[in-house]
Specification:
Strands 8-9-10-11-12-13-14-15 form an eight-stranded parallel beta barrel, surrounded by five helices. The protein has a seven-stranded mixed β-sheet with strand order 1-2-3-4-5-6-7. The chain contains 16 helices and 15 strands. The longest helix is centred in the middle third of the chain and has 20 residues. The chain has 403 residues and is an alpha/beta fold.
Length: 403
């Protein structure tokens, strides 16, 4: 009743490989097998049959008063990678909780939506190879959207894309973090300084200050210095030179990862990955006046990044790329378009990952603010010509201006 209608838009939007559903009433677990993973789920029970293996995920989604303390459940999920709590009743709404690298992560929303729709989307999203955290976010958004559609007799269901039905990530910046009882470290961060979104159309990501100078000379207005090896002997000089080049060209130059050096040399901005959000002193970066970019790779990471009100976020990786080791799957243009609908005008966005001159136009048509390129410039026979071709595609009216 719920799963089949969800598979129709999934196929229409090309959100994953074709899903086949079979029913085995003698099997207590739900099994999901994709091209990259295999998992099993049990709802509200632990399979005790000696002939049945323990489930990958134990989904608790039925709750009766009196309820446990949220902090207690948070610690329990942090200690058990298989435990997933959905729709836990909390003050002013409900919370979904799951395990991530020895910690518990969570999202919250004001109402839980329809429970059967939530379960169905969870299974469909996992079958489409979304990671667990994204499957949970989609499930909650669909449950709320389904309930809203039924209440307003709006008929046909669509894949959730409107921000109002999505939950909020529980971070230190969540306005009710203390009242809810979620345990977290750090202090809330004020919004980061804005950038000039009109200069974000073509965003070059390069690995040396020499390349920063070259791409700025060839007409790029936004660039990132990404040096993956912190043991580089001239790291500090590279950062200092990149910052100086950006100032000289009145360009937006971001330093990847090395936020303390970026502050030291008064960089325009800093770019951080998801793991860096746990270790970087975001308040110090914000108070120094630096702009902040945050990498995201799916629904949950987008929601998490939005809580910090950064200057921009990157969405990736869109296509297979060899320039950076990635643990996530390529998102593809269809998922990118849905991410952009979710974000809307809240913050500028940059698509990144495997984007070539041939792919740039369809990426730009998804509505992203900018397109980031790496090897399309650095491995081009003539980088200057490559940049001109890319600007013809991604920068509005550039052709007319050039003529």
């Amino acid at each position: 009743m719920h799963i089949e209608p969800l598979l129709i838009p999934a196929e229409l939007y090309q959100l994953g490989e074709t899903v086949t559903v079979t029913v085995n009433n003698s099997e207590p677990l739900i099994h999901i097998k994709t091209m990259t993973k295999e998992c099993s789920l049990a709802f509200n029970f632990v399979a005790a049959d000696e002939h049945c293996a323990s489930p990958t995920y134990q989904i608790w989604d039925q709750w009766l008063a009196p309820f446990s303390e949220l902090a207690e459940l948070q610690q329990k999920v942090a200690a058990d990678p298989s435990l997933v709590l959905c729709g836990f009743p909390a003050s002013d709404g409900c919370i979904d909780i799951w395990h991530h690298q020895g910690q518990a992560r969570a999202v919250s929303c004001h109402h839980s939506g329809a429970s059967e729709a939530q379960r169905a989307m969870l299974l469909v999203a996992l079958a489409l190879d979304y990671p667990l955290e994204d499957a949970l976010v989609l499930a909650r958004a669909h449950a709320r959207s389904y309930q809203d559609h039924n209440q307003h007799a709006q008929g046909e269901l669509i894949w959730p894309s409107k921000a109002k039905v999505f939950p909020r990530a529980l971070t230190v910046n969540h306005p009710q973090i203390k009242q809810i009882g979620w345990l977290t470290d750090g202090q809330a961060v004020a919004p980061f300084a804005a950038l000039d979104a009109s200069l974000l159309d073509l965003y070059a990501v390069v690995d040396s200050s020499d390349w920063i100078e070259r791409v700025l000379q060839f007409g790029v207005n936004s660039a990132q210095l990404r040096i993956n090896n912190p043991q580089v002997s001239d790291l500090e000089n590279q950062i200092q030179s990149a910052v100086a080049a950006g100032e000289s060209a009145s360009a937006q130059v971001f330093i990847n990862d090395y936020w303390s050096l970026a502050i030291k040399y008064h960089a325009y901005g800093v770019h951080l990955g998801q793991d860096d959000l746990d270790s970087a002193h975001l308040a110090v970066i914000q108070q120094a006046g630096l702009r902040l970019g945050i990498s995201t790779h799916g629904y949950y990471e987008i929601l998490r990044a939005l809580e910090y009100q950064p200057s921009y976020i990157t969405l990736g990786h869109i296509f297979t790329t060899s320039t950076n080791a990635m643990s996530s799957l390529p998102q593809g243009v269809s998922r990118l378009a849905l991410y952009q609908k979710l974000i809307g005008d809240h913050v500028p966005t940059v698509a990144i990952g495997g984007i070539t001159i041939e792919r740039a136009a369809k990426v730009r048509r998804t509505g992203v603010t900018g397109v980031a390129v790496v090897s399309a410039i650095t491995q081009a026979v003539d980088p200057a010509i490559a940049i001109t071709e890319l600007r013809n595609i991604v920068v509005p009216n550039f052709k007319n201006m050039a003529e």
